[in-house]
Amino acid sequence: MTQGAGQGPEVRTATLRDFRVPAYVHDVPEYVQEPGHDPAPPAPAARAQAEPDPAHQEPSYPSASHPEPAYAEPSPQDPAFDQPDGYTPTQRDLPVINRGDTVQVQIDTEPAPRPAEGLGPLYVVGDVHGYLDELIAALYEQGLIDAESSWSAGTARLWFLGDFTDRGPDGIGVIDLVMRLSAEAAAAGGYCKALMGNHELLLLGAKRFGDTPVNSGAGTATFQAAWLLNGGQKSDMDRLQDVHLQWMSRLDAIELEDDHLLMHSDTTSYLDYGDSIEAVNDTVRETLTRNDADECWDLFRKFTKRFAFRDESGPEAVRELLDTYGGARVVHGHSPIPYLLGEVGTEDAADGSEDSRPQIEGPHVYAGGRAIAMDGGVTMAGKLLVQQLPMDS
Question: In this structure, are residues 254 and 263 in contact, taking their beta carbons and an 8 Å threshold?
Fold first, then answer.
């Protein structure tokens, strides 16, 4: 199965020079330069404005010269709003539940699945959204890269769960880093791979289709308008090259590692694309290859769905996915943990001050212990999570 992060004969890059890694990827912050130092991710003085995912308030444009888009989704309170079930691509506020509505369950610890012979430990990374410095710090803290931002984890396996761009300052820098680490990890006997997130689909659509109207199910929409409304950064679009587009378009949507079903979105919409992992990944890639704006929009729309595992029906939704694709636990990004915990009502609530920042210490285990949420809310001054699997609880 082709893996867009650099594994397999179809997409393996022959030389490192093709990755076109900018020099700033190697500019490691001072706090990771000291040998033996145990860093903590910095708290940037000026973060990009927090925005819901994929719902968003008024768009924040990269420059004053950028015109306001003519399109925005109607409010769900509008009687004319005819949105498909679970679809919230540009709605301002995400549904919020109280802390007690998602239960963190202690489950019996099962023996850790043995990885394939010769492979090292398994790690997953939540949504990055352009926060390159925070990603470098988190990978360094786990011992996956060294002070030069080079792969240092030998035969370890690293999976990114998608959403590399938008909202944060350097989405293309994040992609360049992940592509380079893929080659370096493979040379060391490990691997670094990545999944398709809804923001990869959004960026691909904005680049390919621009202002071409699509049938959104709630009126006329365009990828360009949706991309801007959901944190699209002009600097990312200006630096987007063919190598980035090819890499994103080849990413898998879902994978199974050591009994963990890895996916970006906490939705059962993957079931619409096939009854096996291979079928889902092939269908998603074929959809992108056909280059039909409406088909790609529908794919993006389904990948924006969320919260399928959070309420009383959550364990059953997880079981449906696991029964179909295999595994004992679902591991996902996409929905920020602060929403799942009911700590904030909107992403506007996190203004960057110490009192308002979500206190996220690690992944959120819920749905009867069978789902692990990995989006720590880095876009809302939360935490960029890198976690070794399996987790005990």
Answer: yes
From residue 16, give the alpha-carbon distance in Å to each of 3, 19, 183, 268.
Answer: 17, 6, 7, 37
Question: Which of 370, 337, 365, 340 is closest to 126 using CA atoms?
Answer: 337
**Mean pLDDT in residue range 31-54:** 40
Q: In the predicted model, is pLDDT for residue 225 greater than 60?
A: yes
What is the percent of the chain where pLDDT is above 90? 61
CA 112 and chain centroid, separation = 25
SS (H, E, C) the chain: CCECCCECCCCCCCCHHHHCCCHHHHCCCHHHCCCCCCCCCCCCCCCCCCCCCCCCCCCCCCCCCCCCCCCCCCCCCCCCCCCCCCCCCCCCCCCCCCHHHCCCCCCCCCCCCCCCCCCCCEEEECCCCCCHHHHHHHHHHCCCECCCCCECCCCCEEEECCCCCCCCCCHHHHHHHHHHHHHHHHHCCCEEEEECCHHHHHHHHHHHHCCCCEECCCCEECHHHHHHHCCCCHHHHHHCCHHHHHHHHCCECEEEECCEEEECCCCCHHHHHCCCHHHHHHHHHHHHHHCCHHHHHHHHHHHCCCCCCCCCCHHHHHHHHHHHHCCCEEEECCCCHHHHCCCCCCHHHCCCCCCCCCCCCCCEEECCCCEEECCCCHHHCCCCCEEEECCCC
Q: What is the mean pLDDT of the chain?
A: 77
pLDDT of residue 342: 78
Query: According to the model, what pLDDT value does residue 44 have?
Result: 39
What is the C-alpha to C-alpha distance for residues 238 and 241, in angstroms, rounded to an integer?
Answer: 9
- Which tokens is 222 given? 């365009």
Two tokens, residue 45:
């003085």
| Average pLDDT for 385-391 | 97
Residue 202, pLDDT > 60, answer yes
Peptide bond into 390 cis (omega under 30): yes
For residues 97-119, average pLDDT: 47
pLDDT of residue 109: 40
